[in-house]
Each structure stands twice: as structure tokens, then as C-alpha cells.
Records
---
Amino acid sequence: MVKLAKGVVLHQRRKPLKHGLKFTNYMWFVDLMQPQRKLLPKDHFGGEAPSMLDAVENFARSRGESIEATDKLFAIASARTNGYVFNPLSVYWCIKSGGRTRWAILEIHNTYGDRHAHLLHPDDKGAAVINKEFYVSPFFTIDGEYKTRTFFDEKHIVLSVNLYQNSVQVFSASFTGELLEASIKNRLLAYLRTPFATLQAMARIRTHGIWLWIRRLPVIPRPNHPKQSGML
């Protein structure tokens, strides 16, 4: 099963400067228990797993979790377009036979080529709180916590990451969209709207950073990010 997730991306910096991004984009929602060719293991986690299922299962196991025989495993991410991909956020869900989420993984990529994943246990509404552990924006320190929401049903999907530092919300990012049949018509329309989807997303994020730098927002030095355990 493969579906097209068409939606709106919002980035909003709240402090010390207010600035935001808003644009339409699309991602791919896939069942990792079934054969699929949209999401490639070389683009996720350590990039060396034989399959996406192996990559996700290995990371979950490294965090003390597993995939049971009756579980379902879903993922949403951007796929390669014209040979290029950039995934600021990929999400993976392990769903029990009764429909509840056993666990989820947030995989974050920054614009420097680093990646980091968090395993979390969302509530029934998809909400969870995790510590910030990864250098993403050059204008934020590596501290604080993320309040996240990772929710989907048959027709809709909501992904949001809100950064709090010293109990104050300083940044929010979200993708809110609808899940569509991956028909030839829907694929063609998505490609015509955003023929270089992930390249366009990268360009917008970099332009956003240049805008902040021109306004003399202090740049935080980027530390070395060693390969995370469980990143097969």
C-alpha cells in the first residue's frame, strides 16, 4: 500500500525574531510490511540496511522495542525526485492489531547531512514529549524539549514538532495534509505542482536561514554528531 500525502508545510520561528515559511508539498505514506519502492534504505537511518523494514526494526530493537507478528508498520517521508532527496522529518509507526500505536520513530535530517532518530510512545491523539538531542537549526542550541504530534487516519495526517526552551515555545514546524490514492492522475498533479519537491524544500530552508543571518541572529557552532547507535 502506497498513498500520496498532499499537504501544507509550516515553519514558524517565534523568538527572538519572528519569521515563517508556508508552502505546499507532498510526501509518500507507505506500508513497510508490503513491497514498496518509494522509500530507499540508503536515504534513512545509517543508510546500510537491506530494506526499510530492517532499518526500522533494528533501530527499534536498539531502544528495547520490537515488531510483533500481528503489528503493522507505516512510514511517511519524501522520496527521491529527479535523483535528489532531502527529508527534514520522516516518521515511522508500529501499530498494534487493535489499532493503537505501540511506538513511533521520528527521524530528523539537518541541512548539513547529519541525521538523528528518536523513539517515542505517543498517546491516543499522537502526542509525545522528547528531549532535543540534535543540532538542526544553526540558530538554536541543543537543549530544550520537543512537544510532538504524529497522527494519521484513513484520510488525514498531522505531523508537528514544537520546540520549547526554558518553558517557552521558540519554534514550530508542521505538515498537515490528506492521504490520497497514488493514482497516475494524483502523481502527475503532484509532480507538476512541485517537480523538484525536496530540492525546493531545501532551498526554502536555506533562504530562511540566510534571512535570519542577515538580521544578525547569532549562529551556534555545530558540534560533531557521531553516528547514533541503532543506525543500521
Note: Residues 197-214 form the longest helix (18 residues).
---
Amino acid sequence: MATDYEIEDTEKAVEDILQKARDKGEAPFIFLLDNIEDPHNLGAILRTADATGINGVIIPKNRSVSLNSTVAKVSTGAIEHVDCAQVTNLVNAINDLKKAGYWIIGLELDGSIDYRKQDYKGKIAVVIGSEGKGISRLVKENCDFNVHIPMYGHVNSLNASVSASIIFYEIIRNR
């Protein structure tokens, strides 16, 4: 396995992900990561993304972990199979997805909809925020829906990769 991974940093890479999803003939599911900084979280998210057949992952160019050897190791090879695109502006990417007919769903601690009650059919893109701050204000404002995972214990949040896994499998179950 290589120690550094090249990630396409052009808007064309996002279009490539969308085209591959269209070519599969299924309802596309894209995942956007808003300022994930922990390489272990990104690696675990990529691992689950591969296991659940996610069409692609979009990450911001700045204030976010890049694909590196730690991410590759934690992903246990999934980094080689999940299409990733890096964008300069996540809000612009969201607006492009909306123009292409995608519903944008933010996974937030204070989301108004229980994640189990959300409709995940059709073209969707799910956003998960950083480990400490969640989804940034502008990204959150551009989401069509904001869902939450109910917490019943004493902690008030989950690790980003755990949250991603829960929602990935809920989407598969819902479809």
C-alpha cells in the first residue's frame, strides 16, 4: 500500500462520482464530510462506505484530513475502492448536487427528524460534521433535512465514524 494517496481536487471528480452512480442504474447515495480532522475517523468511514456500497465521498480541501497512510491503514483497503473527491467549497458542491436532483440530509445532534423516520429513497447526499463542532453553519443551512440519532445515555454525541455507520445501514434498510 502506498504511503500517500492522490485525491482529485477538481469539480470534475465530483461529476465522475455522479456519473458512476448513474451508470449503476440505482438511486445514488453520496456522502459529504464537513471538516473531519481525525484520520482514524475518515479511514473507518471509508471502510463502512465500501461495505455499504456508497457511490462516493466528498471532502473539503481545507480544514479536513486528506487521504494519507493512516487513513489507508484504518480503511483496511477500502480507500482503493471508494471514489473520493476533494472540493474547495462544500456549499458549492451541495448546490451542484441539488441542481442534479439530490436531497441533502445533514446528520446533526440537534436535527429535527429522527434518522429512522427520514425517507432515504431517491438521490441523496448525507453530510456529517467534524468530531467536535458538527456541521458548519453554512453547510447546515443548505441541507434540505437535518436528522439526529437519539441519545438515551449520559453522552450527548457519537464518534463521526460510528454515526456514519449507523446512517449508512439505515439507508440500506430503508431502500
Note: The helical segments are 11-24, 39-52, 69-75, 90-99, 137-141, 160-174.
---
Amino acid sequence: MEWLPASGYSDYEVSDTGRVRRVTPHKLGTRWPVDRELTPQLQGRDSHHAYLRVKIGQKYVPVAHLVATAFLGPRPDGHEVNHKDGNKQNNSVTNLEWVTHKENVQHALQLGLRNPADWSGEKHGMAKLTEDAVRAILATPRGETGRANGTNALATKYGVCTDTIRLIRRRAIWKHIE
């Protein structure tokens, strides 16, 4: 196992297998001995898809970032860490690489870790509308702005902006709804 300084954290080292340890004495003495490995914690709700992180000072730092920065070099602009095998808890340097966000998403799709259907419609985390609401909007005849079935009235009824109603009616968004 090889240890290198953790970039940006002078009191710590990181190993090529994803371990992190303190290498200088702590100001409070023996309670935190030198070479003590930090215990990683899961970051995320689902333990199968969670990243490992360690607490350094008052801040939580992803272990993958520490390993990648130490062994692969500084993070290039617009890049993020990718776990080649899809296991976010395998922080071995041989499993990590710097990629763009687009490449990371494509990789997750190839491994079956993400499903494009999970990003659309009411499953999307930012969705304000349900599929039933979109069907009702599409079924409502177009009317003048001031009428009950007009764009403004529908936007108010469903808590969205008028552009959202127009885009739904033009089939620019929510295209999968019949």
C-alpha cells in the first residue's frame, strides 16, 4: 500500500486503496494518535449507492476526491471523479478516473446504474406536475387568456408558470404523455 499527502490537508495522508490517516500529532494529544486511520462514513440515503467520506476538522471530504487528487493529480476544470466499476465505495486508485459530467452519466447508463426514465416526468426530483395533471392540461381546450381554461388559469391552478403550460401544449415537454 502506498501513502501520499492528502492535497489541501497537510496533517493527513491517503492511500492508493482509499484509506485516510492523520500523520501529525493532534493538539489534544494522545486521544488522536499519529497514524490513526479515519473511519469513513456513508454519504447518502441508500447504502448501496452511497459515497464514502471522512471528517477532517469540521468538514466532510469525499474519500474518492482525496485519492484521485493525490494519485491522479489535480482535478481538471469541468471534471469529476468516476468509479470505473460503478461501486462508489471502491476508492482504490485503479478504480478512479477524472471524467466530464457527461462521460460520468454515460458510464452510469452503460453500467445500468441510472435509468433515463428516472429523470423524466413525475419521477424527476424537480417535477411539480403529475402525469394526470399533464393529461388534464392537454385535454383542456385552448381558450382566451382570461377564461377558466386559459393558459394563465391553468398555470395558477397547477402552480407552474404560463410557459410550462405552453410547452406542454406544444409537446415540447412531457412528450411521453399521450
Note: Residues 141 and 149 are 7 Å apart (CA to CA).
---
Amino acid sequence: KLLFLFGGGKYDAEILPLAESFLIRVTRYENAEVVLLSEKKDGDDETILKRLAPEDCVVLFDERGKMSTSLEFAKLIENKKHDGVKRIVFIVGGAYGVGDIVRARANHVIAFSPMIFPHQLARVMALEQTYRALSILAGSKYHHG
């Protein structure tokens, strides 16, 4: 199972259709769920940590992370599935990211770029890259690289 924990509350109206589209694509390959955490109420580090099980593999998307190609990201997911990981949790923080305690809990911290993106866009990027990774593993033609 895949769980996406996204800080920053609801989607902006113009982002929602794209995010939903990629979530639908992801669910063609894996059982997946998105949980939106309210920045005011649920976005704090403790709330994120409470949603994690000790056995979860946590992938945090953060500009301070390691750069990864789409193929490397696909290999990471494949390896976790082969290792018997029951749930992979992907986290994108809200407008102010996440704190050191969440970063320390993450098994992998991945950066999309050295640039910083709005958290709404980073959510879509996380969903798209997960879909891309799953399509690579399935041998789909979506990935051309």
C-alpha cells in the first residue's frame, strides 16, 4: 500500500484535477491513499509521526534531500516491495516543510531539484513520479528515458 501524507491543507482548485488524475493512475498499479493534513491543525510533526507505523518505509520529498533519477526512484520502490515492506509513506510538507524530527524518521529524503517548489506543485510531482516509477516497473511506455 502507498500512503501520501501532504501538509498544507486542501488542494488549490487549479491543482486538484491534476493531482486526482495522477492518483487515479497510481491506483492502477497499487492501492494508494492521499491524506491532506491541515497546516493549522494537523500539519505539525507530531501529527505526521502519529500516522506512521514503525515498519513503514517513509520517503520524504524535501529540497535538502538527495537527487534521484526516475529510474533510481523506481528501483527504490521495487526494492521495498521485494523486501516485504507493507506500506510506503510519501510525505510532502506544507508551505514551511517539515521539521528535523520528521526528516530524521524518513528512511529516504529525496529532492526534486535544488530549487524550491510550492508545496501544491510538489504534491503533484510526488504523485507523478510515483506513477512514473510504477509504470517503469510494469514496463509501460509512459517513461521514455
Note: The mean pLDDT is 93.
